[in-house]
Design a protein that fits this description.
Radius of gyration: 19 Å
Shape: globular
Order of helices and strands: HHEEHEHHEEHHHH
Low-confidence stretches: 206-210, 216-223
Mean pLDDT: 91
Number of strands: 5
CATH superfamily: Ribonuclease H-like superfamily/Ribonuclease H
Largest sheet: 5 strands, mixed
Helix content: 40-55%
Number of domains: 1
CATH class: Alpha Beta
Strand order of the largest sheet: 3-2-1-4-5
Strand content: 5-15%
CATH topology: Nucleotidyltransferase, domain 5
Distance between the termini: 63 Å
Length: 223
């Protein structure tokens, strides 16, 4: 058990190296920023900004994709219990269709940062940064596996979106949103053929193969 705790502590320390370097440079309130929901056929994209306060230890933070739903919920509750500063933002299906998913994801991230209870001194953004960010920042490709702050944001964004998709499953029954969270599973595509797209499906979503799925679903229903 002791060895396991030491291993977990070492892992957290390695994922906090970038934040530690920034703290030494004099930056305070370093926020990790990430999103969830770029790939699905339905639902909004949700972003989170999280500031991990030095000295506050939250076990289990990791890239959300490496955690089970139960593990993500457990870490999410720990983040809330410790009153870690969190900001949430989202971009609607209408915004995704109007601007494209990349722009909508950035909109969600900006909104998440703006809704932090404190102004961050530096942003660590999952993926590539983009022009027009006023705060000091850095983009990190695969940042949720390299930065503890981004990993925390990935968990908060994922848990928040998953909960929202469970709510949308009750509003739009038959698609199976609770199970697949809007991703293009076989079950989901079959539901599209059977029911047609709902109000929370992304009509203009790419790649084109997914647009074909929408067209096929709509044409099938008309026959």
């Amino acid at each position: 058990m002791k060895r396991q705790r030491e291993k977990e502590s070492d892992r957290r320390a390695r994922m906090y190296i970038i934040e530690t370097e920034l703290l030494k440079e004099g930056y305070e309130a370093i926020a990790g920023v990430d999103e969830a929901g770029r790939g699905p056929l339905a639902g909004p994209v949700v972003a989170a900004a999280v500031i991990l306060v030095p000295g506050v230890v939250i076990e289990g933070i990791n890239d959300s994709k490496k955690l089970t739903p139960i593990q993500r919920e457990r870490v999410y509750r720990r983040i809330k219990k410790e009153k870690v500063p969190v900001g949430l933002g989202a971009a609607s299906v209408e915004e995704i269709d109007r601007y494209n998913i990349l722009v909508a994801s950035r909109m969600a991230m900006i909104r998440a940062v703006e809704r932090l209870p404190v102004t961050p001194g530096f942003l660590l953004i999952d993926g590539y940064a983009w022009p027009g960010i006023d705060l000091p920042h850095r983009g990190l490709v695969q940042g949720d596996a390299r930065s503890l702050s981004i990993a925390a944001a990935s968990i908060v964004a994922k848990v928040t979106r998953d909960r929202l998709m469970r709510f949308l499953d009750r509003r739009y029954p038959g698609y199976g949103f609770t199970k697949h969270k809007g991703y293009a599973t076989r079950e989901h595509l079959a539901a599209l053929v059977r029911l047609g797209p709902s109000a929370v499906h992304r009509r203009s979503f790419h790649p084109k193969s997914q647009q074909v799925s929408f067209s096929f679903a709509e044409e099938t229903r008309m026959k």
